[in-house]
Queue: 4 jobs
Job 1
Amino acid sequence: MTPPMPPPGPAPAGGHPRPRVAVSSCLLGAPVRYNGGHSRDRFLTGLLAHHVDWVPICPEMEIGLGAPRPTMRLRTDGRIVTKDETADHTRAMTALANDRILDIADVDGYVFKSRSPSCALLNLPRYASGLPGERTDGQPVDRHGRGVFAALVTDAFPHLPAEEDGRLNDPVLREHFVERVFAHARIRELFARDWRPRDLIAFHSRHKLQVLAHDPAAYRELGRIVAGAGTRHPDDVEAGYRRAFDRALAVRPKRGRHTNALLHVLGPLSEHLNAARRHDIVAAIESYRCGEAPLSVPVALLRHHAEGEHLDYLSQQTYLEPFPPDLLLRHHLQ
Ligand code: SF4
């Protein structure tokens, strides 16, 4: 049994969607770990909880194992077994993944618990399964494993934004994951309604600079898909756009690409600014480029002036506010 879903938080501000995010239940504080404890994550249950609806999943509880329960491990043959090898839960875990696939198809991201033979995304110790040449001292053969449930989910949805709790402590990875989740929620909302090519054009127009910051090649590909939207079957347009959009956002933007996107905002804004204001913005972009200021500094300046000059095409760019600003995700210097 998975614990009941927490009640939704307050409505999002600033016109942001409210993503649905699957999460290993123990990260929300549910006492479902093998030892009856939890692994509550402060960021997930604090700031982020105000802006997303969680879909908690504890695979080991859902296949009927209670808490506390015997510890388990992953073997090199891909099976999940109890440490003493008396029980093999691989078949139950596979059946659960098949049962949950429809729920997971409708989420915008997944946060997995690290180091779990069910939930870990990467670097999980794998233990011998009796193959020739494997060590026999009970130590891990390698650390190249993925949790059985996590592997089934991420193989079924290779473009779903997915991260582990520990990696989200890195401010760059955290920002990138949250940005992808909100972008995924916006595109899900677009295609969930009876959309027309003009809706796709409007969506694409708002996301141009965000996509450019991630992947300039995808920016051009998406432009071609939008240009042909009126003459192709809507299902093909949707599938092609979704695929290219998800792929683009999966590329983590580097400082140089952010600088390029910032200059693309400054370009059309320049003619509306006097020399002093233009100089301030150029200096802020340069400080960011050199690693002396966080991205939030030039973005705030550009947004302020784009709004002040009523330049809707610029001020409505998702690049300038890809997620709720109170998540404070663009304030790091990395
Ligand atoms: S890591 Fe996964 S299986 Fe283990 S307690 Fe957390 S949610 Fe359950």
Job 2
Amino acid sequence: MKNAGIMLIFAFMLATASLNFSFAEESRMIRVSPSYEQRYLNSTFFVNITFSSPTPLLAMQCEIKYNPDILHAIEVYKGNAFEGWSGDIAPWLIEIDNENGVIKGLFAYSPQGVYEGVFARINFIGVAMGESNIELTNVIAGDENDIPVNIAIYNGSIEIVSYPWDVNMDGSIDVLDMIIIAQHWMETPESPNWYERADVNNDGIVNVLDLITVGQHFD
Ligand SMILES: [Ca+2]
Ligand SMILES: [Ca+2]
């Protein structure tokens, strides 16, 4: 009876040990945040590179890839997690290459180690319609015991869409958008030349209300 009790405790300890282990492995991650979001053409926005780890990380580095036909990176900023930042001690290392869609030279470190937070913030602009992956590559992170540590990578994507009132999707809200509405005047989804984008307010008919919506958003 006593042996059975000990066996039970032993089995329980084994089970929790393996649980802890798998939890630790899965919870150390670096992540593109947001994982997916829609943004408007010609708008600027931030993408964060965040991380979390069951052991304090002393340092991290990575590169970031994106589709330069859809996104351009404007600037990279230090996150709130680590103390030291490549942009502060070696700004010449940070390279934003909007021809090839890659950001290089990002690293950060803290002597006492950090568990989680924002590694870097990237300011992008959407330059064309479509979806771009944002991929983390050449990720290296280290804690007190291991360099590198195993770390799961979660990439993200941004889809660039246009405002409904940018009828011709050229990034400007002007008289050209009004002309398209005029070309489809009083048409409905049953009309042979129905053009959904001309129905800016999405009420099933192209009329003066659509003109007003465009006019309210003129550049
Ligand atoms: Ca337009
Ligand atoms: Ca309408």
Job 3
Amino acid sequence: MQFLNLLRTTTFRVAVIYLAIFSASAFLVLASIYWNTAGFMARQTDQTLDAEIRGLAEQYNQRGPRGLADIVSRRAAEGGGSLYIIMAPGRRFVAGNLSGWPQVKTGADGWINFTYDAEVEGGFERHAARGRHLILRNGIDLLVGRDVHERQKIESRIVSALFWGIVITGITGLIGAVIMSRNMTYRIETVNKTSREIMGGDLSRRVPVKGTGDEMDELAGNLNAMLDKIERLMLGMREVADNIAHDLRSPLNRIRNRLEVTLMQEADVDAYREALEMTITESDELLSTFTALLAIARAEAGAARETMESMELGTLVADTAELYEPVAEERGLKFHCDIERTPRIWGNREMLAQAVTNLLDNAIKYTSAGGEVGISLKSGGPNDYSQGAVRLTVYDTGPGIPVIDREKVRQRFVRLERSRNTPGSGLGLSLVSAVAQLHEARLLLSDNDPHSKTPGLRAMLVFPIHEGADIQASEPKDLSQSDHRSGEMTHTENP
Ligand SMILES: Nc1ncnc2c1ncn2[C@@H]1O[C@H](COP(=O)(O)OP(=O)(O)OP(=O)(O)O)[C@@H](O)[C@H]1O
Ligand SMILES: [Mg+2]
């Protein structure tokens, strides 16, 4: 059954077609070998016989029947496989080394294939022969022939060698086709098996990679990469669903309970109003949480990828800084802004603006009055000597985030214990992290000033430069705007 399946595979069919073409060409080669060996020998014999019989006919014309009989008798005595016979009219034997005229009729072309009793060591043996038959003047029959026993033996050897050659070619080819398709089928079957297991619900299964680096390995590698991506997305979706189920249920319950309690009491208009206002406030918070969750899911799923464009961050950073500067000052914080002209990156404006907003919001929220908050945009990676990147930094002089919590705070709904009394839902850094991932950027969290009692937080986004974009080709209007603004801010705000 399995073998029959093998015969249906594409590899097997391709191998068989190849085998057919190969066999046909092998057949042609062997046929030409036959034509040049056995065929050549046969033609050679015929030519010799033809020449000899013509010579004898000539002799007969010149020297008459006696002369011919003399020559034939002489040649017949020489032996060596040459056969002669001359018969007078009425089938009377005249001369020759054949005991009698062959019992076969001459063909229309004058050729005759017959057998005769050849003399061999210790007796007679029936041998095949071929001869030329000529009827001379006065009704004399002349036959000149050759013993073709040896030649036919060689010929049949050649034919059987050719036959077996083709048979062996066919058999080895067929075995090769089966082995080849078995290998291919085996490797495809591993892919099929993995797909079935995944469809069965085990999304963690992967196609085995052999490490040969061939096209099957490449296929397996690509499939695995695709599966990784799908698994990540699925986990993300599941996480969002879990988050909604757990973290949005309690505020909704709270709203519902408050409304129920208010309805049960004999309350006055003011109490109702107060309950409704609180409901609106909490609903707004719920809505913003929803929005943030969706934005994170969107960024993680890469849905915003279609709206990405080649852009430079200067304007965006300057605009956001301009918005947050008064907020910071209102809270008694010193605000710094330092924007350099940087190469273009590949980004989504809306998502990036939201990320910068979240970082500035945190810096301002968690830094107490008298502290400092700043934003900067520079060329190069996290170290001044690393090239080919753009780094956006938001820093503050607040309490900072302890090293052990720096991974945790990127998760959804994670808020540090000391932040319990400040408003927030713990989604800010999750969104920044998702936006970073969408832009293939790195989000680095570190101390702003490790030696200070309040180390502060330094959140840095390191973007890869958009390769295709020409730095000089950036829209001049945008650049001048951002330069102008950053210049202004650096001038007024920087110490
Ligand atoms: N600049 C900062 N300084 C000190 N701690 C910070 C800073 N930024 C974030 N954190 C800590 O990380 C936690 C997670 O931050 P995140 O922005 O994700 O949520 P949040 O600010 O609490 O709420 P949200 O941003 O959703 O309003 C915060 O609760 C806070 O404890
Ligand atoms: Mg926040």
Job 4
Amino acid sequence: MGRLDGKVSIITGAARGQGETTARLFASEGSKVVLTDLLEAEGETVAADIGAATCFVKHDVTSEADWRRVVETAVERFGRLDILVNNAGIMQRTPVVDCSVEEFRGVLDVNLVGPFIGMKIAAPVMRLTGGGAIVNVSSIQGIVGRAGTPGYTASKFGLRGLTKTTALELGTFGIRVNSIHPGGVDTPLIRDAVAGIEMTTETLDAAHAHLPVPRCGRPEDIAPTSLFLASDEAGYITGAELVIDGGMTCGYTGRESR
Ligand SMILES: NC(=O)c1ccc[n+]([C@@H]2O[C@H](COP(=O)([O-])OP(=O)(O)OC[C@H]3O[C@@H](n4cnc5c(N)ncnc54)[C@H](O)[C@@H]3O)[C@@H](O)[C@H]2O)c1
């Protein structure tokens, strides 16, 4: 018996990285999954590989019309909606004084306004079948700041706050809303973050060797937490934030500058 048997999920940003791994895990636990992303070819390939219990929808999370189409697809294809994982996101690395207003707004639009629209449109549909669960993928940059990433940090702090407010509003409809806060995770998002610097598993692990868990995270480290929060096992957990960072935010090991 799967931990998500009978449930229907939408996972954004599921063409690669953590979203892809989460979609594969959810499907393996019995959920029907609507994968969405801007990356159409990659998303179609992942959905086809997972199999018949999935479909892919091209989706820009900043578009309200796209969100309506995604939620409609879940209901038309699979009959209901139980789970939303707001995973799509973009990184940004420009210090405050050099960051244009357009760049700052652009990151907020994807990482914060996108999940807002998704919850606004998905929640009334979840309510029709008695409730559901929403997992918002924030970051440790929703817990602590980081120089050089003003838009990203603001968006991830914002998503953590939005999670609390939405949890308070939707509890009476049986909908739980939680945020997760990954540390460094080996995906294209950090591999491509610094132009001209090629990152590998080895260099990323070396950059995280000072942590209590002395390596970079993998998508497989993150997806099980979303699974737990989306499942009925977490039925009494809402408005919570769960850090998955190898201990990065718990303090200093003394090995930071080796
Ligand atoms: N990798 C890390 O170190 C790390 C750490 C903490 C949090 N996160 C968060 O985890 C989430 C997943 O990121 P990842 O690490 O798998 O990176 P990734 O770049 O591999 O995946 C992000 C996906 O989101 C999609 N996307 C971007 N903009 C979109 C839009 N407007 N509409 C729809 N899809 C869009 C991308 O095409 C991509 O497939 C993000 O929210 C990210 O901020 C990542």
